Amino acid sequence: MKELYLLGATGSIGTQVLDIVKQNPTEFKVITMTANHRIEALRHLIDEFKPRFVSVGQEKDSIALQKDYPNLAIGYGPNGIIQAATYHSNHSDTLLVNALVGISGLMPTVEAIKIKRDIALANKETLVVAGDIINQLLQEYQVNLYPIDSEHSAIWQCLKGEAHKTIQRLIITASGGTFRDYLRSHLQTVTVEEALKHPNWSMGNKITIDSATMMNKGFEVIEAYHLFHVLPHQIETIIHRESIVHSMVEFNDHSIIAQLSDHDMRLPISYALFYPKRVSNPVRSLNLVKLAKLSFEEVSFDRYPCLNYAYQALNKGGNACAILNAANEAAVDLFLNRQIDFLSIETIIKEALDTTTWIEKPTLMQLMDTDASVKKIIYQRYKKG
Ligand code: NDP
Ligand code: MG
Known about the structure:
- By secondary structure, this protein is an alpha/beta fold.
- The chain folds into two domains: 2-147, NAD(P)-binding Rossmann-like Domain (Rossmann fold); 152-264 and 302-316, no CATH class.
- The chain is 46% helix and 16% strand.
- It has a seven-stranded parallel beta sheet with strand order 4-3-2-1-5-6-7, sandwiched between helices. A five-stranded mixed beta sheet has the order 11-10-8-9-12, with helices on one face.
- Strand 2 (28-34), helix 2 and strand 3 form a beta-alpha-beta unit.
- Helix 4 (77-86) runs parallel beside helix 5 and helix 6 runs antiparallel to helix 14.
- The chain is globular, with a radius of gyration of 20 Å.
- The termini are far apart.
- The structure holds NADPH dihydro-nicotinamide-adenine-dinucleotide phosphate and magnesium ion (MG).
- NADPH dihydro-nicotinamide-adenine-dinucleotide phosphate (NDP) binds next to helix 1, helix 6 and helix 9.
């Protein structure tokens, strides 16, 4: 029995994690969970999974919950998430599952590492903002971090049993996002509703917009850099519309190993939760004959400038990726709240990268300060009313 500490239980990844728990009731026990605003959904999860501790975004919600669940320990705010991540256990097999969105996932990951709790990470922003520091901490505390993102799960599976020095390049596949068939000239007027219709995956709002701008792929390049310890130029991206090949690795003998499966996040989630075991799951088996064709196309930096900004930030290092992430979080939030148009997302990110003070070797606190100051400037400038 593995104990799970689940951050972001009410989200797209969180609910799929719980789906796997439901199907394997003797394998997992959910000890803590967090939600931000979806309190009704959290109530259902409390009734079903009976955690020992939950945390919510707002104090008033925690007070209301406490009245209905007098025996449940309840926290709130950023500190409550850290409590959920580090909740004490004497059990030998515990796993933090971080399915938060945005930089809110960073500090709980850091604190969980410090109590030597292994981590299954969906929250890619943690590695984008502070990958160097996270890697140092993982090393120092001898903690394992397992990726949940489908591309990284694919690469992780492709690398099993291979010597690191034989890796020639990682090939990360991209669906191309919601607007892959739109000309750039049509992007100026696209609506939030249009942007939220992803062709292959059903995901949270922020990552769906990140997929449409291809910033998601840029983040995945940075994530891969920190997870697999290769150089930026060894990480390539390629458009693959079908989302069947989840990523590939080319080795020094020019063998390319790929991982294929239906596009269903329960596979990479299950792989991370059960690692090192591979177990059966409800994911549909692929019918290759019916699929018949898999296509691959070059990604254009002109078409997708955000991907280019991500490579630039990764090559620059220091706090550049924290600037990239903060500007993206603020810009996507403004777009989702109909304060800016779609193409302004990339303009805002470029502006932030060009104007924010660069720090060569930032501390964790300097990265958090970078995040706060970049967002403050963007909201001051672009938020209406
Ligand atoms: P969702 O928006 O669906 O869920 C996010 C979760 O985090 C919810 O439980 C939400 O609470 C909570 N949350 C949101 N903002 C905050 C905050 N400021 N503080 C605390 N909690 C917060 O996101 P996804 O599940 O889609 O994505 C989660 C992470 O996984 C992201 O980093 C994403 O990039 C990554 N990922 C997602 C994939 C997917 O298929 N969805 C695929 C690969 C990676 P509430 O709902 O209660 O408000
Ligand atoms: Mg992905």
